[in-house]
């Protein structure tokens, strides 16, 4: 390196810095001069280093990799990134806990986020799922209330078991996810040792315009590994960033993290006849009804260079679907279609789509211009309106021509899901499926948490839900709390 090539410290405008240790003062020790613009710029920029953390899923870790198609699915979807066996699509994945703040412990009892961004040749496809196939709720209108109960008490600023169990006990549809959350799967050891799910029902559309309903499953090739409750509590103090560092170091050591991807496919005409509403995200489709069909492999093999640029500014939205993929009338999914881009505009800024981590690997062509921090060419001299006579980009209906159309009709009403079965059958079946050891962990984890609830009324209401799922389930939790329960 020559003397000229040596890099020197500058301001944000490239002006060489005279000193990075001593501020400019009048005499010794002297007051500091406002004209020390090096100091002012440094302090002012520092004050603005934080952007709002995600309102949920604030603590997370991410990695780059690819998705490879292993089985022909062209009979079900025309999505270009899935159209050839062996095709690889670049991907970025962010894993997260849900309720804690950006500095909270990785080992917390919580679902884990499993958000995938596929940089396809038809634009970005985001599959923003969890490590659980179901969710606590089935209507987006309940989500902010639910999350308030997972966060901090408005007066004490501490976690509030009464609020948590009050809401849960008044929300019977949560029982399935609660049973998973308090099983050992509520404390996965690392992000590599857990499965991922799209959770919602989505639509796939093939080249003939025919549609099917679809659910995604990602099975970890590393095998499931969980902490016990005691281990998770210990890790929260001993190494709160354990899962974050595990992912980073695994990849840094030249190894891959991988999941096989399968789907369940339901013919559209079977939805109305199914044993429960197939769009209700508190339920799983039975594998005996709709077996797993393998489709591909997700591989993570490259760490981010910079956490803020790539992980913190990453913006995933269930809103982003590509031709060949559609939404379903799942009311949670419908609410999420609004919520995520809205969160991104607030959290990252109007032009967040242009940041390198969010930018698609295809051209962005439209008439949206300006806005805070527009840092590309902003469309240059090309027209910013349509219709125009200057060869601006036109809509591309050919990507959607002949697609299946959903037929909806009815009055505008606020209707609950029609429950063909109840909210207790699947959690009860899950409980009975568990080994004796798993049942004991589940019961002990629940007892350990519910013991902190002050209101007896809340506890008794929740115990009835466990009992309705399976009398033994309810009785064991009640016994652990020194109580009795009946239907
Ligand atoms: C993050 C809203 C349900 C998975 C978020 C964020 C919001 C949000 C606002 C923060 C986004 C950001 O700042 O970048 C909602 C609403 C829901 C809902 C309103 C219900 C109507 C779900 C469900 C799942 C899920 C059912 C999974 C099946 C995630 C994940 C993230 C996230 C994985 C983190 C994404 C990332 O890593 O950046 N959610 N959510 N959410 N949500 Fe949801």
UniProtKB/TrEMBL annotation:
SMART domains: Catalase. SUPFAM superfamilies: Heme-dependent catalase-like. Gene3D superfamilies: Catalase core domain. It catalyses: 2 H2O2 = O2 + 2 H2O. The active site is at residues 57, 130. GO terms for molecular function: catalase activity; heme binding; metal ion binding. Keywords: Heme, Hydrogen peroxide, Iron, Metal-binding, Oxidoreductase, Peroxidase. It comes from the Bacteria. Residues 10-394 form the Catalase core domain. Coiled coil: none annotated. Heme binds at residue 340. The keyword S-adenosyl-L-methionine does not apply. GO terms for cellular component: cytoplasm. Its EC number is 1.11.1.6. Its cofactor is heme. One of its GO terms (biological process) is response to hydrogen peroxide. Belongs to the catalase family. This is Catalase. It comes from Ktedonobacter racemifer DSM 44963.
């Amino acid at each position: 390196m020559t003397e000229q090539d040596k890099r020197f410290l500058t301001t944000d405008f490239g002006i060489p810095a005279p000193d990075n240790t001593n501020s400019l003062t009048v005499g010794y020790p002297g007051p500091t001069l406002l004209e020390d613009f090096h100091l002012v710029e440094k302090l002012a920029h520092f004050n603005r280093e934080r952007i709002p953390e995600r309102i949920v899923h604030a603590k997370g870790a991410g990695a780059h990799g690819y998705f490879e198609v292993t089985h022909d699915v062209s009979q079900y979807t025309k999505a270009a990134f899935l159209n050839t066996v062996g095709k690889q699509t670049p991907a970025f994945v962010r894993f997260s806990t849900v309720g804690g703040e950006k500095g909270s412990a990785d080992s917390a009892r919580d679902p884990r986020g499993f958000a995938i961004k596929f940089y396809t040749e038809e634009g970005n496809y985001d599959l923003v799922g969890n490590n659980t196939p179901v969710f606590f709720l089935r209507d987006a209108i309940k989500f902010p209330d639910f999350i308030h109960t997972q966060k901090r008490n408005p007066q004490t600023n501490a976690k509030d078991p009464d609020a948590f169990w009050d809401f849960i006990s008044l929300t019977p549809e949560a029982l399935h996810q609660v049973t998973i959350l308090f099983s050992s799967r509520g404390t996965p050891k690392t992000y590599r040792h857990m499965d991922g799910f799209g959770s919602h029902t989505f639509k796939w559309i093939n080249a003939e315009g025919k549609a099917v309903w679809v659910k995604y499953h990602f099975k970890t090739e590393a095998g499931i590994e969980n902490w016990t409750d005691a281990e998770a509590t210990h890790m929260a103090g001993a190494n709160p960033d354990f899962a974050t560092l595990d992912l980073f170091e695994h990849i840094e050591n030249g190894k891959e993290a991988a999941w096989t991807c399968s789907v369940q496919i339901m013919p559209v005409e079977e939805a109305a006849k199914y044993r429960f509403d197939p769009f209700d995200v508190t339920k799983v489709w039975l594998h005996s009804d709709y077996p797993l069909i393998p489709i591909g492999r997700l591989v993570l093999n490259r760490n981010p260079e910079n956490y803020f640029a790539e992980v913190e500014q990453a913006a995933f939205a269930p809103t982003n679907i590509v031709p060949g993929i559609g939404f379903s009338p799942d009311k949670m999914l419908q609410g999420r279609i609004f919520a995520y881009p809205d969160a991104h505009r607030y959290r990252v800024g109007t032009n967040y789509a242009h940041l390198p981590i969010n930018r698609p690997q295809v051209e962005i062509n439209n008439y949206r211009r300006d806005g805070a921090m527009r840092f590309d060419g902003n469309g240059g001299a090309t027209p910013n309106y349509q219709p125009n006579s200057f060869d601006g980009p036109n809509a591309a209906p050919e990507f959607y021509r002949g697609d299946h159309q959903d037929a909806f009709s009815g009055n505008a009403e606020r209707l609950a899901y029609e429950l063909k079965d109840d909210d207790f059958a699947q959690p009860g079946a899950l409980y009975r499926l568990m080994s004796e050891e798993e049942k004991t962990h589940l019961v002990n984890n629940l007892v350990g948490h519910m013991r902190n609830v002050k209101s007896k009324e809340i506890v008794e209401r929740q115990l009835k839900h466990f009992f309705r799922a399976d009398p033994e389930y309810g009785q064991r939790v009640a016994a652990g709390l020194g109580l009795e329960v009946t239907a």
